[in-house]
Amino acid sequence: MTGLPAGPRLRDMLSNPRADRVKGVRALAGRSARDRSGTFLVEGPQAVREAVRFASDDVRDVYVTDAARLAHPEIVDEGLEAGLYVHPVTDEVAQAMSADAQGVLAVLNAHAEPGLDALPSAPRLVAVLSAVRDPGNLGAAIRVADAVGADAVVLAGDCVDPRSPKVIRASVGSVFHLPVLRAPRLTESAALLRERGLALVGADVSGTVLLGRDTERILATSHAWIMGNEAWGLTSDELRELDHVVRIPIVGQAESLNLATAAAVCLYASLFARS
């Protein structure tokens, strides 16, 4: 690679877009390949940078083009300093690995997803996402939770794989900043969340409490925001598990907010209530 000295962790240039290694990296876009290999793919300079900085023990390989090296030298420098394997690749190889990586990719080891027993002690704010299926929504919600300083994100029930490249890309690396935990359906997890001292606050159009001044007292205490599926929201069984059901005010003609926007509104309300 242009401008890079030889070193024990710097690999030779990869130039064959049809090589087995390249095909293996590209296959990680699919869940079955991730499950078989025990690895997952991180795409793009921001997400790879955060993986190198916050999850370097799990980084198996970093792939970077010459142009990306010049634009983001800190990724290669920090990767080599951490003793990671850095692979220079041609533009054709990078494109064959991923069309969305902007010349920078990494492959990380995957571990068994932690459960609620990994929830930090005495949490103040947790985001619980129930049956979220859209990777863009999930990634964006994780990013918001990171931005407001949430203690964890909990994926309850049948949620999309948080190691999907689309989730990681939408989170812009925030998946490496805070715990992302797996849990059974909310109806089975509610008691465990309460045992950690969290009030369960749901966001739903059926709410009788309006987000704003009426929720400042609720949000000043330790709580978990519960967000439902993009299509049907929270189920009747889930609503019965909640301590408070809050409605986001809508004064215009919009029918509702999408999941990521609703999560941003609610989590920032919690941040403001604590400040």
Automatic annotation (TrEMBL):
Does this UniProt record's set of keywords contain Transferase? yes
Which residue numbers delimit the RNA 2-O ribose methyltransferase substrate binding domain?
41-114
Q: Give the source's domain of life in one word.
A: Bacteria
Q: Which UniProt keywords apply?
A: Methyltransferase, Transferase
**Assigned GO CC terms:** cytoplasm
Give the record's family classification. Answer: Belongs to the class IV-like SAM-binding methyltransferase superfamily. RNA methyltransferase TrmH family.
Q: This chain belongs to which protein, by name?
A: RNA methyltransferase
What organism is recorded for this protein?
Demequina capsici
